[in-house]
Structures are given as structure tokens and as C-alpha cells.
Amino acid sequence: MLKNTLTSEKEFIRDNCSFWDGFxxxxxxxxxxxxxxxxxxxxxxxxxxxxxxxxxVRKNAGLLFILPSRSxxxxxxxxxxxxxxxxxxxxxxxxxxLKVYSYLxxxxxxxFKTPDDLLDFESEGIKFGDLVYDAxxxxxxxxxxxNPRDPVLLKTLRDFFYVKGLVKDVLKRYRVILGVTxxxxxxxxxxxxxxxxxxxxxxxxxxxxxxxHTAKTGFYDCYMTPERKDIELMAKQKERFLPLxxxxxxxxxxxxxxxxxxxxxxxxxxxxxRDKNDFCACFGLDPQKKNIxxxxxxxxxxxxxxxxxxxxxxxxxxxxxxxxxxxNDKVNWIFKEHPYVKYYPANDVDLPGLFxxxxxxxxxxxxxxxxxxxxxxxxxxxxLVTCTGTAGLEYSTxxxxxxxxxxxxxxxxGFTVDPETPEEFKKQLMEIDSLQPLSDEQVVMAKxxxxxxxxxxxxxxxxxxxxxxxxxxxxxxxxxxxxxxxxKILEARKQSSELDKKSFIALIDKFIDDPDFIRxxxxxxxxxxxxxxxx
Length: 535
What we know:
With about 525 residues, this protein is an alpha/beta fold. The chain has helices at about 5-20, 40-60, 75-80, 95-110, 115-120, 130-140, 150-175, 185-200, 230-235, 240-255, 275-285, 315-325, 350-355, 375-380, 390-395, 420-430, 440-455, 475, 480-495, 500-515, 525-535, and strands spanning about 35, 60-65, 85-90, 120-125, 125, 175-180, 200-205, 210-215, 290-295, 330-335, 365, 385, 400-405, 415. The protein has 21 helices and 14 strands.
């Protein structure tokens, strides 16, 4: 035990060792491994280790962790409390040489002449260009790729080749039968997922919810992507699910949900507009025209998570809308800044400046500083435009039509407008005043998708009697300490009944064994899904 280890951390290690010794008292040798991807945040890694450990029990395998350095003694001590833990260290001479070699590989591949060349980039038969593109935007803190010869792109490409080489080396040296990751984006989790799936290895993704990636799923089926059979099941039992969906939406729009993440778009400190004339008068718009709200994205927040957009990225999508809006004065265009834009700053874009230089009477820009409660849209919006924003789903439940510009988890369920080409998208923008309110059937489908999104895969609904991932709201995340994290995990374990723990183990065993059990539902809470899974 380390001398400087936190008190709660020591207690967690003792408790964890005792629990898992009940499954592996002999610590017998193992020939197969559950590979746990290293995460930037230790709390996420701890949750992945816990999930992987249950798989290790069921599959009689060991846990294999990749740590950046042997000097991470505290983390190694914590992870060693899980069963059959083995470690690979990235500061070994072998991987230090790989970092040098990956730079040479990047130099040879660094011949992109256009941004689209990067998006088309592939290696060994797998497309990785979208992952590198998104990672570049995040690293550069840019809204778009302007220079395909940018040194930051070269570094990002080097990161890709290093992760690719590392994962392939691990797969060559160890018999990995399952991978566990917290993210499936960028040059980290995205590369991890695609390489393991190329080898036919199952991957678990634990983000807000837990989802299994198998031969039946695609690279872009992330934890938010619903299975159509589940939505169809809810549609057949809409008498039960519609009231539940409406209750969830009511809490969300009225900021009654305790999750602080809703505080920014639905803050009760911001003005809620219920009257279109009042809104138009405040912002100098013509109340006789329809209001089209463009829900802007955080430009560098991994735009290709659900696949290739109609435009190269969120910024190019914005440009296409802006150009169309300037020339279409039949409607009012209100561009609303993303509420979390401060967490994703874009160094190469000045939206306030752009709009100030375009004094069109039918265009308005609402920055995050404007007192405007997003819930106003149900009273003001005649149509919405987005790519992957939740607003397109939320306000479809009020009958507001939504024009999308690429794949997202609620696209193509019959209530969104889904153009197939940029030209078709532009045509829809120029004729957007012709969009009609959604039908009753479309609203019902939107509500079911909203229930799936805001209830079924909400992190607070994850069945967790072992304190796998403590739910910490936005405010608490700013001040929480490692000591408090371990305290919360231990508290969750002590407060959970033995019946709850046995129920979780039985369910996770089913999730492990059944290839068709793709999403980890709490089947006791949602018996309708239990019947579907068992059918």
C-alpha cells in the first residue's frame, strides 16, 4: 500500500480486493484478456475496470490495462484490486520507439491537398479520416480545417499512427476477447473500436449508457443510437410510454430535472418568451414572417460522431445556411449559439462580428449572453435547422418540423426532414417557409425517441449498485476530489442491498452471454424490454 494513498482510496482497495476474491480465490492463470482502454479521466477508467471485471469473471479471463507510465503507482494500486490485472506501460522502450516511427508514418501520409482528402483517408482498408479530422479540430480548437498542411494536423496524424500501432501490437501479443472503452470518437476510442472490430472482437462502450458493438452494429452506432426494434416496441405500447415521455419532457422544459447540465439552455434566470409578437418586437423582426431557428453546434465537438455529414463539418454546414438565409428574406432566421460553446472555443471564427457586418433585417444572432430560455422555441419556432442537436428532437415533440443535414440518432424515424445531398439541403432552406407542423403520428414518434434519449439512456438511470460510475452534476465536477469520488463509490456499495447486487450480476451475465442483448437495460425497471430481449 502506498504511503500517500488517500484514506478512502485505501478503503476502496481493501473492499474491492475482498469482493473480487470471492470470485477468483485462487487467481488461476488465464490465457485470454479483457482489454481496458486508458481514459483521460481516472473516474471513467475506474468505471470501465469495474465493468470489465464482471466480464472477466464470466469469461474466465484476465484484465489488461494500458497505462501511460510506470510512475502512476496510485492508479496501478487501485486497478490491481480488480481480478487478474495485468499492465502494459507506454513509457517502455518499445513504445517510445513506436512514437518515433509513428511520426515517420505521419510524414509519409501527410500529403492531403484538400480537407476532403483527409476525410477520405484510410489505412489498411479502414477509413480513419473522419476520426483524424475531428481530433484535429479539437486539438487546434478550430471550427474547420482551413490548411491541410497545418503542423497541428501532422501531430494529430502522428497520434493516430501511434494509437494504431499500440493497439495492433497489444492484439498481436495478447489474446483479447473483449475491449471496453468510454468513448468511440477521435484518435483514441474511435481507433480502438475500429481496430478491434476489424479483428472480430466485441467492444463495450460505456458513455452515458452501456452499449455493445458487435458484427451487427456499425462504427457510427454509438451509445445514443437506438435499435429500431426498441422504438417499435414502444410504438406498439404507446399507451404506456407516451405519458412517461411527456412527464420526462415536462421536467426537462421546466428545468425541474436536478441535473445541472440543463441549467444553461433552460435556466429560469433567462427570459421565457411565450408570445411571438413580443419576441419579434424585442429583436426587431417581422412578426408576419415565420421564425426559423438555426441551432448552432459547438463547432469542434467531434462533428462526425454519427457519420459523414452533408457538409464537411459543422462550420461548413453553418456557412451553407448563412448564405441561403441572406438570400431568403421570406422568413426570419434566428441563429442561436450553442449553450456549451465556452467549453469548445473556436479560434478561427467570430460569429458576432460576422453578423454585425451583415445588417439584414431578417437575420438575428442570439449569443449565450442573451437572456433567452430555449424553452421559448415551443411558442416561437415555425421550423428548426440542426445536424445533431437535441433541439431538433425536443421541439419535434411540439410539432415543430426539423431540417437535418446528416446522420444523427433520431434521423430517419419519419418526423425529420432528411435531405440526401447538399443541393437538396439548399433547396429545402430556400423553401423552408413551406414546411408544415408535424402530424400527430410524427409527434408521437418524436416523443418516443425523446423518452429513449432523456430517460432510458440517461446516466442517472444506469443500474449501478456497485458505484461503477458515480453520477456527478456539472457544479460538483468543478470541485470534486479523488477522496470524495472513492467515498461516493463506497457509499453506493454500502447502501445497495444484496438483492440489488445479485440482480445486477444476473443482468450483466445475460448482457455478456447474449449476442442480441446490445444495450444494457435495467430489465426489472422496464419489463417490456425484458420480454423483447427474452423473445
